[in-house]
Amino acid sequence: MSVDVDKPAEPPASAPPAQPEPIKAIPVRHYGRWVAALVVIGLLVLLVRAFASGKVNWGAIPEYMFNTDILKGLRNTLWITVLSMVIGIVLGVVLAVMRQSKNPVTKSVAWFYVWFFRGTPVYVQLFLWFNLGLVFQYIDIMPIYKDEWSDFMTPFLCALLGLGLNEAAYMAEICRAGLNAVDEGQTEAAHALGMSHGKTLRRIVVPQAMRVIVPPTGNEVINMLKTSSLVIAVQYYDLLQAAQNVGRDSGVVVEMLILAAAWYLIATTVLSIGQYYLERYYARGSSRQLPPTPFQRIKAKLAGPNRAGGTA
C-alpha cells in the first residue's frame, strides 16, 4: 500500500534583485590649484612683457648664433668639459680605491685630497694655479721637463687642472658610495673562487657599482659644463668669453649673453638625453621591465589608432 505524500509547493519564482545604481564619484575641487596656476601665468606674462618692452635686439641672437668666434668658444667649452671630466673620473676612481684601502698612508692621502679640494672653491683654485708663477719661476722635473713657469702654465692648463682636480674630489666620493653599495658577499664569493683583489674590483664590484655611480656622474658632467664658465678668470677662451667679446665689439652685450645661455641650454639638453639612456643601460639588471622611453611612448600613441582602425 503506497501513501502519496504531497510535496511542498515550490515558492513562486521571485524577480531578480534590483541592481544598485553605480556610484558617481565626484572629484574634490581643488581651488588652490587654480589660484596657483593663475599666479604662475600672471608672473610669466609680466616676465614676457618686461622683456618685450626692453630694448633687446632679438634679431641679433639668430644672426650671431653660428658666428665663428661663438662656435670657437663653444668648442673650447665642450673640450675643456670633456677633458676635465676624464681627469676627474680617472683620478676619482683611484682616490675611491685608495679610500677603501687598508693601507693607512694611501687612505690618509686620499682623505686629505678630498678634504682640501672639496673645502675650497673652484674659483679660488683656478686663481691659485694661475698665480703660482709669482712663487715658482721655473718648473723643473729633472729627467723629464724643465721650462719657465709662465710658458708652462698656459690658460688652458690652468683651466684643466683647476676643473679636473676639483672634480676628482667629488667623483671620489661618488665612486666610493657606489663601491660601498655592492654587497660584501660578492667580494667574499669572488675571493673564495681565487680571484685577486684587483680582478674582483674589475670583474665583480665595479660593474655592479656602475648602476649607482652613473646617475650622479651624469649630473657632474652637466654641472662641469656650466662650471667651465669660470675659466674666464684665467683668460681661457670659452663660450662666455666669446659672447662677451662679440657683444662688446657689436654693441649687443645682453643679446650675446642670452645667446650664450641658449647654447648652454642646448648642450645640457643633449647631455641630459645621453645620461637618460646611459642610466637605462646600467639599470637593465635592476628591474624586470624598463619603462618605455619617450620615443617609444610617442610611437605607441601614433600606432594605437591605426591598429584599432585596422581591426575594426
Can you walk through the features of this model?
This protein is mostly helical and 312 residues long. The chain has a domain at 79-236: MetI-like (MetI-like fold, Orthogonal Bundle). 70% of the residues lie in helices and 3% in strands. The protein has twelve helices and two strands, in the order αααααββααααααα. The chain has a two-stranded antiparallel ribbon. A hairpin with a 3-residue loop joins strand 1 and strand 2 (145-148). The longest helix is centred in the first third of the chain and has 33 residues, at 68-100. The chain is flat and about 115 Å long. GO terms for molecular function: transmembrane transporter activity. Belongs to the binding-protein-dependent transport system permease family.
Topology:
Blueprint: H1 31-53, H2 60-63, H3 68-100, H4 104-119, H5 122-131, E1 138-141, E2 145-148, H6 149-152, H7 155-181, H8 184-192, H9 197-227, H10 239-250, H11 253-282, H12 294-311
